[in-house]
Design goal:
Order of helices and strands: EHEHEHEEHEEEHEHEHHHHHH
Helix content: 40-55%
Number of strands: 10
Strand content: 15-25%
Shape: globular
Radius of gyration: 21 Å
Number of helices: 12
């Protein structure tokens, strides 16, 4: 049986489509755990209505605490042999779990991953990862996958950043496999990395886009949030605690690149923020002058970064905090 965990909050416009795409799967042996995260709209009622119609639906009501607390509660209650997540504004292909379970059974896999379709208002695009498809045993995981477990070499998100494209064995669902409360951005990064670090086998269904990720460009993940840097510092500390002292693989470079990615993200979004240039400069300097940032830049060799020359120059400017005002003018006008 598969336990499908769906955190629900203020998505009454989309939840019918989401839930029906799960209940109408060609793979029928599943339980659907709808976690109402104190949603103020009609979502709690809609969830209860689905539970009345289908015995496979379990509804959990809780006070609002964010997606991490909702997923954690779902993980506590999951009874399936395999576990998966779906966001309540997204939906999945009718045969997603049948195809994933075929790979799980054939290869006796701990973790299976498919690709996704990113649905924008006027277009859609398949999103795939720059790693090979197919089966990875523990040997291939150590030799091929661990080098970009936390972050890709080009300072982009790792393959498992979207936890919703993953199906994993419930034996990996232990107390230490929980989301960091209080982190609102990139919380999937740490969970996915820990999952693949614990796994002994992995199958990537490269090119099979079975999950539909509905892109909301006004969401917090795509817009300026004044205290986003604090979230990233908390997340980075957790990443460091989990992986810095790993006895089998040296993740130190990836840990530094994770913070560099967070710097790129927060500073980049500050350029386009609807605040004064003075405030932008103050926010950016707060990030670049932080103790964690300064220490990280000491470890990073800019010339060796696998990024564009333009980004190397920008990284140099960040490291030595020069020309930031010019960057604000340049990027803020775009």
């Amino acid at each position: 049986m598969i336990s499908v965990i769906v955190p629900v909050y203020k998505t009454e416009k989309y939840i019918d489509r989401c839930v029906n795409s799960i209940l109408n799967q060609t793979y029928k042996d599943l339980e659907l755990i709808l976690v109402d995260d104190g949603s103020p709209d009609r979502c709690p009622e809609i969830c209860d209505e689905f539970a009345e119609k289908d015995s496979r639906v379990v509804v959990l009501h809780k006070e609002n605490g964010g997606v991490s607390t909702a997923r954690n509660l779902g993980l506590d209650k999951a009874k399936g042999d395999y576990i998966s997540f779906v966001d309540s504004d997204d939906y999945i292909e009718p045969d997603m779990y049948e195809k994933m379970m075929d790979k799980a059974i054939k290869y006796n896999c701990d973790v299976i991953m498919c690709d996704c379709v990113k649905n924008f208002d006027a277009r859609s695009e398949i999103y795939t990862h720059d790693i090979r498809g197919g089966f990875y045993g523990i040997k291939e995981l150590k030799e091929e996958y661990y080098r970009h477990l936390l972050i890709m070499e080009n300072v982009e998100y790792p393959a498992t950043i979207s936890n919703c494209t993953l199906l994993f064995k419930s034996k990996l669902n232990s107390e230490d496999m929980r989301y960091q409360q209080g982190v609102r951005f990139s919380e999937d990064l740490l969970f996915g990395a820990k999952l693949l670090r614990k796994a002994e086998s992995f199958y990537y269904m490269k090119g099979q886009a079975l999950y539909h990720y509905v892109m909301n460009m006004e969401s917090a993940s795509h817009s300026y949030v004044p205290d986003k840097w604090n979230d990233y510092l908390l997340l980075h500390k957790r990443i460091e605690n989990e992986f810095k002292c790993d006895k089998e693989f040296d993740f130190s470079k990836q840990i530094d690149l994770c913070l560099l990615f967070f710097i790129y993200n927060t500073v980049g979004q500050t350029y386009g923020a609807n605040i004064s240039k003075k405030e932008k400069l103050q926010k950016i300097n707060e990030i670049l002058k932080s103790e964690r940032t300064i220490e990280t830049f000491k470890n990073i060799k800019i010339n060796e970064l696998q990024v564009s020359m333009k980004l190397k120059i920008i990284t140099f400017m960040y490291k030595y905090r020069i020309g930031i005002s010019l960057l604000i003018d340049y990027f803020g006008s775009k």
